[in-house]
Amino acid sequence: MRTRAQNRAPSLRVDRSACAGHGLCYGAAPEIVDSDDQGYPVVVAESVPEERRDQLDALVEMCPERALSVEPSTRKAEKQ
What we know:
Distance between the termini: 7 Å
Helix content: 10-25%
Low-confidence stretches: 1-5
Largest sheet: 2 strands, antiparallel
Radius of gyration: 15 Å
């Protein structure tokens, strides 16, 4: 049995209990984050290419409530 490593790109996570709905994140990156009917962020990109990691880091830094975090990329072994 062989295994193959599979890359999983980084993703953005929102702590809804910390979020105050300022809207900075979905204003800055609507291709990654959208808003729900109440103005709270909803992540629309399950993963973001590693080359756009700087954009994720910038979103985390701009959040005044520190409600955003990046789940780092991982390598997952897949059985073949």
